[in-house]
């Protein structure tokens, strides 16, 4: 006799009720988790990570926190079902209504969709996009070596502590004073996570999920801006050898595929360091900054071909949210379990460590008098979603901005004169600014590439943020774009 005949028959209504309660608690739990560890997110950010995967290569501590959140959701679901079974029908309906209301409120407090379509329904991106692959570029006679450092979640506000003796970025703050700053670097929603920030700066337009709801979804997810051109493509096509050094896995959120598809010939992440015999911490996001910088600098000293110019990209990890990481390369007596420490203390430690090792790398790079011009660009990849230390910082007059600094040196190692600017710009303006800083010139649409405007041009060449205002730019560029879909994948 089949065993199923001895199992109690569950009424369909009870199954539907259990599924509904589980769904509502899942929505509450998932949004609470996102809000707690990532801050306010956009639908694009969530959909992009779902499409590109790699969560199994994230910080194991975050995954463990997610598991604990799931266990809490299951426990609350069981508790709710027990209560519902003992309540009068109208009391049960009231409980379900309260739970549904809580789910709606939690979603609204966690997910923000900034899309504001053009009044005429047009494609804002298409109206302003200058395709880097369609302009005639001329490289300089002396091609500089280029160092670009993306510092994880680095707000400009960290350079302005309320108490000067409690500086969080003492070396980078001094370096910023010696270098050139360009004004206020603001965060677009499509540049509000690591790969989005890198992509927007190097490719000149915000990152969006593509084809997620189409029958070609899998094919789209295997491509990365295949029909578009980024700064790395432009430089590689003109003789630069390009390398990327990161501590986290290249498999996370499509980062490795982005770099590979856009001519970054040498790519190092957690797995590549392990293959070289480097011990990568099992906890956290990967190889920490003190080791990462030393290994990157050693690799940057490898022999080169005659006349070869190089571009080196580096992405740090120590200051990743929600509270940063202990780095034993900076703090010899760091404790083993940082969950036992105050989160603010860990973040202070992480900021000071990253500050020291990044400044040291930059000093080595510009101090290497090898007869080649040099360009240095340092920036936060995006704003810290949930800054722990706001109370210790002076408020930014016009809202939070991203840390950045630019320096250029001639072949004799002399810094080229440059004044600080007072511009308002976004990640998309980094592409043409860096292109001009490196010495690239183009006649068609001068000073403009992608959606950006070079900040080294005359101020009469306004950025989109200066011309239309941040609210409009962010709203228009957060909407779906047919041109963007065509740029993502070749027909």
UniProtKB/TrEMBL annotation:
<keyword id="KW-0472">Membrane</keyword>
<keyword id="KW-1133">Transmembrane helix</keyword>
<dbReference type="Pfam" id="PF00884">
    <property type="entry name" value="Sulfatase"/>
</dbReference>
<keyword id="KW-1003">Cell membrane</keyword>
<keyword id="KW-0812">Transmembrane</keyword>
<dbReference type="InterPro" id="IPR050448">
    <property type="entry name" value="OpgB/LTA_synthase_biosynth"/>
</dbReference>
<dbReference type="InterPro" id="IPR000917">
    <property type="entry name" value="Sulfatase_N"/>
</dbReference>
<dbReference type="GO" id="GO:0008960">
    <property type="term" value="F:phosphatidylglycerol-membrane-oligosaccharide glycerophosphotransferase activity"/>
</dbReference>
<feature type="transmembrane region" description="Helical">
    <location>
        <begin position="62"/>
        <end position="82"/>
    </location>
</feature>
<protein>
    <submittedName>
        <fullName>Phosphoglycerol transferase</fullName>
        <ecNumber>2.7.8.20</ecNumber>
    </submittedName>
</protein>
<dbReference type="InterPro" id="IPR017850">
    <property type="entry name" value="Alkaline_phosphatase_core_sf"/>
</dbReference>
<feature type="domain" description="Sulfatase N-terminal">
    <location>
        <begin position="144"/>
        <end position="438"/>
    </location>
</feature>
<keyword id="KW-0808">Transferase</keyword>
